[in-house]
Amino acid sequence: MFSKMKTAERELARIIRRDEGAPIKEIARRVGVAPSSVSRWVRDIRLTPAQEQELLRRNPAYNRQLSGTAKQAANRREERIAYQDDGRRLALQGEGCHVAGCMLYWAEGEKDRNAVRFSNSDPEMVRFFVSFLKTYFDLRDDEIRITCYLFADHVQRQREIEHFWLEIAQLSTQSLCKSYVNVYSKYSQKKRVNKLPYGTVRVTVTRTRVIQSIYGAIQEYAGFKREAWLE
Questions:
Q1: pLDDT tens for each residue of 202-217
Q2: Which of 47, 91, 160, 200 is the most buried (most CB within 10 A)?
Q3: Helix 123-137 / helix 96-108 crossing angle, nearest 10 deg
Q4: What predicted TM-score, i.e. pTM, was given to this entire model?
């Protein structure tokens, strides 16, 4: 009988911790057991970042219990939230170039947490997107990187193509990363459909403040909230 009761209490404690992220002492009070028992029962349950933040808000002493890694993760998440807030404020200005740049990234960009990655083959689209980055984020050339993706028949023109994209983006050679060549498959018969004369290019900015500002603006413009972009 005693064992069955303990099992039920343990399962209830785990459910409360997992679903609500409640503090150890609160769980102990609700279940009617010692905090030491709850601590032992739930030690393997990982809280979500949102639950960690709520524990910090409700119980500042919990901050002292967090490991160094957890503290850093919580701090980084707060930074991402602040950068999204910056983006929301930019969105409220309603500038056409900013709206277009953010919507273009929403449609075409990779959804990474800490880096902007935008790939395309349209020169005017690439020109506009790089201009958007420079206008709203005050980036140096060496903070904006471009990588060319070429086909085998581009190899003889590699330097020409690389300089073409640098000119389109109005960037210096310090922005250029190593190009990649997509060799022909043995089944392709060395034919490509819908040939791209300059291949494709990827624009990369490894700055958390930039991508999170864009995410904040997208959410403000479109009227939704997406936690996944913070995690």
A1: 999 999 999 999 999 9
A2: 91
A3: 120
A4: 0.69
